[in-house]
Design goal:
heterodimer; A: alpha/beta; 6-stranded mixed beta sheet; disordered C terminus; B: two-stranded antiparallel sheet; 18 helices; 4% strand; membrane (chain B)
Chain lengths: 261, 360
């Protein structure tokens, strides 16, 4: 029987900045329908690892495979169109455009309508309706005409998630989606991720500091430390392991401690 | 009808709407309301510059590209028509061929500059365009066998556009309907069509991608848009519009030389007009070009009148002497940029427009 290749995998993925190895030979496979949490102390290389996968950074060595196909040579736009969608840790939106427009542009990217020079953007109803659908899922339907810059931090984080949903990509990468959100806003985003996960058709990668979140959402945890993958496995086992207690929970800030115990 | 013409992108301010109506009506009726050679020449210049400035706004205001090669495309369009009319007898065929060749060459050069230079940082792109534009200016001045060198080219235009042509015998509303009037309306209609086309482009899905790239190119890439490709396409589209503006100017002036088409001082004028009018609005081009060209053409006359009126007073006549018009023009622009950093259109929309409305 021929086994299907994993949706996404990295093989000995490495990046060096001068003498510093930020991501060190990380090999890992991500299967369809699973949610993998990536944890590790600040500076462990989690976001850099994400940047290597989604193409914002080019690796010094190693490969990134999407459906078994080598995408290491492709830039960020091509990887996005091949199915790697990314939400950013530091909010990364189009500040002077409206909430609707931010998402509509992502929908348009998904539907390859960027080179339509003659129809009116306001008349492409199907794109707008899709954008509104993703905005309703993130609870932003009442802020359609506000500029992204004018939103509260929490709403900007939700918009970031809506933009990712609009890409409808196979791989969804969330980089601390709830960072800086107020306590009552967090459940909406977590429920949304849970909902996508329950569908079991997407492959989700999640960088998250809060251990209770990781415990409840993740199928699997991988631990990065000094750029290297040091532990991998089921959430409870990994969190309980010595290496995590020592490398992560022992040295990390209050965010990690809050969820522990 | 109006909705489709304006691509659902309205002025969004009563004062701005009024201003635009006055400008468009003034230009439409210019031959009858402001008779005479000088006013008509000013009106024609405004029409051409509206197109040129709007096409530059496509780059600077919508896509966030700083280019100094815009007069190059304008010049290529003008020289296309000029060379064709210089080489062949004045016919519409020659005009069409010259326009088409100029358009094709301008677009090809824009494509090359875009493909080679838009991958690099913005400042290098600006430098590359400056270098190419300067090189072409020198080339046009030195190839005197072909381009007439510094003296430029003087040529005849098709009979329909020449002053000797009469549309009707006698006068209409006190104006003789000669070839100049026909030329003017050709310019006016072509400029109107081009501006509306650009308004359409900036409000298309493509135009929205350009704005996204201006706002956050990094994010646009992460969504799957190859920014270099879109920036190049914007450069080519802007070059095409600029070349057509040049072709119109060549038809109007019956003269094309390096100083009137390729010079960097025109480039700086375009930059000023975009900034004064308001970047990323297209309407800003209409307002900016009108204000600037009027100021450039009439400030001197106004100052002469002021100097005459204050003749008996100390110091004042010297200050407002017509010889100092450039000083006052400069002061006016420093003040306008200082007080209206978002341009006249941005200022008017900020007051009368809906808050939080999308830009562009």
């Amino acid at each position: 029987m021929i086994t299907e290749p994993p949706v996404l995998s990295t093989e000995a993925l490495t990046i060096r900045f001068g003498g510093h190895v930020a991501v060190d030979r990380v090999s890992c496979a991500f299967e369809r329908g699973t949610l993998t949490a990536i944890v590790g102390p600040n500076g462990a290389g989690k976001t850099t690892y994400f940047n290597l996968i989604s193409g914002q950074l080019r690796s010094s060595a190693g490969r990134v495979l999407l459906f078994g196909r080598d995408v290491t040579g492709l830039g960020a736009p091509r990887r996005a169109r091949a199915g790697i969608g990314r939400a950013f840790q530091l909010t990364n939106l189009f500040p002077d455009l409206t909430v609707l427009e931010n998402v509509r542009i992502a929908v348009q990217a998904r539907h390859a309508s960027g080179f339509d020079l003659w129809s009116l953007a306001t008349r492409r109803r199907e794109l707008i309706e899709l954008a509104e659908h993703h905005l309703s899922r993130t609870g932003l339907l009442d802020r359609l005409d506000a500029t992204a810059a004018s939103l509260s931090h929490g709403d900007q984080r939700k918009l970031e998630v809506a933009v990712l949903l609009a890409l409808e990509s196979e791989v969804l990468m969330f980089d601390e989606p709830t960072a800086g959100m107020s306590v009552d806003e967090v459940p909406l985003v977590l429920d949304l991720i849970q909902e996508i996960k329950a569908d079991r058709s997407k492959t989700i990668l999640l960088v998250e500091h809060k251990m209770d979140v990781v415990r409840s959402l993740a199928d699997r945890i991988i631990v990065l430390h000094n750029g290297a993958l040091v532990a991998e496995g089921a959430p409870e086992a990994v969190i309980a392991s010595d290496i995590v207690q020592q490398a992560y929970l022992g040295t990390a800030g209050s965010g990690a401690g809050a969820g522990h115990g | 009808m109006l909705k489709a013409l304006l691509s659902e992108d309205y002025p969004r301010s009563r004062l701005l709407t009024a201003l635009l109506v006055v400008i468009v009506a003034g230009l439409a009726l210019a031959p009858f309301v402001f008779p005479g050679i000088r006013p008509l020449n000013t009106a024609a210049t405004i029409c051409v510059f509206i197109v040129l400035v709007a096409s530059y706004d496509l780059l600077l205001g919508y896509t966030g590209i700083v280019s100094f090669a815009h007069t190059l495309f304008y010049g290529i369009g003008a020289y296309g028509v000029a060379l064709a009319l210089d080489a062949w007898p004045a016919s519409w065929g020659a005009v069409a061929l010259g326009t088409a060749l100029g358009l094709a060459l301008a677009m090809a050069i824009a494509l090359l500059i875009g493909l080679f230079a838009l991958r690099v940082q913005a400042i290098f792109f600006a430098m590359v365009t400056l270098a190419v534009a300067s090189a072409c200016l020198i080339l046009a001045s030195q190839l005197s066998g072909l381009t007439g060198g510094e003296d430029g080219l003087t040529y005849r235009v098709p009979h329909l556009l020449s002053p000797a042509f009469r549309l009707v015998d006698g006068k209409v509303l006190g104006v003789r309907l000669d070839g100049r009037i026909v030329s003017y309306y050709l310019l006016f209609l072509a400029a109107g069509a081009l501006v509306l086309a650009m308004l359409r482009i900036v409000n298309s899905p493509f135009g929205r991608v350009l704005q996204a790239i201006r706002e956050n190119p990094f994010r646009a890439e992460a969504l799957g848009y190859r920014t270099a490709v879109y920036r190049t396409a914007a450069t080519v589209a802007a070059a095409a519009a600029a070349a057509l503006a040049g072709a119109l100017m060549a038809l109007w002036q019956k003269y094309t030389g390096p100083d009137t088409t390729l010079s960097l001082s025109i480039m700086i004028d375009i930059l000023l007009m975009v900034v004064i009018g308001g970047m990323g609005t297209i309407y800003g081009a209409v307002v900016g070009a009108t204000v600037f060209v009027l100021a450039k053409n009439y400030l001197q006359l106004l100052m002469a009148a002021a100097a005459g009126a204050t003749a008996g007073l100390p110091l004042l006549p010297q200050l407002v002497s017509p010889d100092r018009w450039l000083l006052w023009l400069g002061i006016l622009f420093v003040l306008s940029v200082y007080f209206f950093p978002s341009g006249i259109v941005g200022r008017l929309r900020g007051r009368g427009g809906e808050g939080g409305a999308p830009r562009g």
